[in-house]
Design goal:
13 strands, DNA recombination
């Protein structure tokens, strides 16, 4: 039988309680922290100590659900009649489940609608962590989800809708197409998670708890990143790369030697102790090696931060090992080392322990790079709005691989790209490619300056053509009779073109386009 009641709880005896007898029962009386007088029946706990029984302030509904299971549900009602109304709703839902009008899954989805959206986001972030997603990506995802919720007014699952998100995204004037698409991908993934879709490796499956019946962001359109890039990276030229390395190696000591005020302001005459001088020189060498390693390996700065001496191999073919946990795509890679870079790294780590980091990559490396660019006289932003930043060093890797004639597939492997179009388009600065030299590798074709406009009939001219039989001559005469509108010159040209067409392929030549 369904009913509503107030639950009773057993609590420890208040320290200032006074026990009195009333109608054959022991009653505890005390004053609570707010100065109110309270009383409760005394009972004995399992350990034999006196305790008090207290009654809940709200009613609980007890009933049998649609699957025949007895449930106790807190109504949240202080009024008994209101609690009975809530019980009637629960009984009505149980009847609908029994007759198949709704399912238990629908009921659970309804329960999730009562949970604040912030709690769902927190559980989604926890799921990302258990799946081993990159920590930086998780942090960015959480920050952007919360920012969009605040901007769109999303508080509950029922608030989620694509139109509100689209309006908010379009209202961010400084947002690039790449960031816009990042938000779209994030909210689509979150929507899939809410519908119970889970990823096992790269395979999606409907194995999670369903919180929504459908993804409200499914089919959300993206913007064209190629035509709306806010920060287009530009590659460094050979001269700029060398100037950058030179100034990076010298600048720490030069800054220490430079006098900032007084009559010698701007002059490098400050006194620097030998110990500090050696430390600054080593710091400069480390910065130059950081830039050189980024340029000649295509490593990302966060990947470089994780490398240790034990990740280096200086055998016949030098390379470094990038662990899957430290790589962006989480696959793990073996990165080849250019011979001169390998020699520099061997000398640099000679006195390090196997577990030591190769470089102490500063968190403010971008700020340091900007200062090095100024000191080297290199424009950070060129006339085409191309910018030099840390990731532009990786762009320089791809560009100079292409400029050196490295095959696209090999360049893709060096850059560790899943899509060759990314290597050839995004990570190759076409302005630095030697296009004029490349076209010189195309086949040499000759065109005679005195070629006749009306080519001679090779039969008439006797040019390497077998003599015609009587039947061939008759056929030729018939063809001339059939098409009186064609001039004799046009017929001659056609025969000449057919018999002298280029039936043989041009000789293959070594070409940058085929490498």
């Amino acid at each position: 039988m369904a009913s509503v009641f107030k639950k009773t709880y057993v609590r420890p005896m208040p320290a200032n309680a006074e026990i009195v007898s009333r109608q054959g029962k022991q009653i505890a009386r005390w004053t609570d922290g707010k100065g109110r007088k309270r009383s409760a029946e005394v009972t004995t706990g399992k350990d034999g100590s006196p305790r008090i029984k207290t009654e809940a302030s709200t009613y609980t509904a007890k009933y049998r659900d649609g699957e025949g299971i007895v449930r106790e549900v807190a109504t949240g009602c202080r009024d008994k009649q209101a609690a009975k109304t809530k019980l009637a709703e629960l009984l009505s839902i149980a009847d609908k489940v029994r007759v198949g009008s709704i399912t238990t899954t629908d009921l659970k989805i309804g329960d999730h609608n009562k949970i604040p959206l912030a709690d769902h986001i927190a559980q989604y972030i926890t799921d990302l962590k258990t799946r081993g997603v990159n920590a930086d990506r998780i942090k960015t995802s959480e920050t952007r989800l919360k920012a969009a919720c605040d901007g769109c007014g999303f508080r509950w699952l029922r608030d989620l809708n694509a139109d509100a998100l689209r309006k908010w995204l379009r209202g961010q004037p400084e947002m690039s197409a790449a960031t816009y698409n990042w938000h779209v991908t994030l909210w689509t993934a979150f929507g899939n998670w809410l519908t119970g879709i889970r990823l096992q490796g790269k395979r999606p499956s409907q194995t999670g708890e369903r919180r929504l019946t459908s993804n409200p962001f499914d089919g959300f359109g993206k913007r064209d990143e190629k035509s709306d890039r806010k920060r287009v990276a530009r590659s460094l030229t050979r001269d700029e790369m060398q100037r950058l390395l030179d100034i990076a190696q010298r600048r720490p000591l030069q800054d220490a030697l430079t006098v900032r005020r007084g009559k010698n302001a701007g002059k490098q005459v400050a006194k620097v102790p030998d110990a500090r001088r050696a430390k600054l020189e080593r710091l400069g060498t480390e910065r130059a090696l950081i830039y050189k390693t980024l340029i000649l390996t295509g490593l990302r700065s966060n990947e470089l931060r994780t490398l240790r001496k034990s990740d280096l191999s200086f055998g016949d073919v030098p390379f470094l090992i990038l662990k899957s946990s430290n790589e962006k795509n989480r696959k793990g890679s073996t990165v080849p080392l250019k011979s001169d870079l390998a020699a520099d790294l061997r000398a640099w780590v000679a006195d390090k322990a196997p577990g030591d980091l190769i470089f102490n990559v500063p968190t403010g490396l971008l700020r340091i790079l900007n200062r090095d660019l100024i000191a080297a006289g290199i424009d950070k932003v060129d006339e085409n709005e191309g910018r030099i930043h840390l990731h532009a060093l990786r762009h320089s890797t791809g560009t100079h691989l292409s400029a050196a004639g490295v095959s696209p597939r090999t360049a893709q492997a060096v850059m560790r790209h899943s899509d060759i179009a990314l290597t050839m388009n995004t990570y190759t600065d076409e302005r630095l490619l030697e296009t004029s030299a490349a076209v010189e590798h195309l086949p040499t074709l000759s065109v005679s300056s005195d070629a006749p406009m009306d080519a001679p009939n090779p039969v008439q001219a006797g040019q390497n053509s077998p003599s015609l039989t009587e039947s061939d001559k008759a056929t030729r005469d018939r063809e001339s009779t059939k098409k009186p509108s064609d001039s004799q010159g046009m017929l001659s040209f056609r025969k000449w073109a057919i018999e002298n067409s280029n039936l043989w392929p041009l000789p293959c030549e070594s070409s940058a386009l085929t490498n």
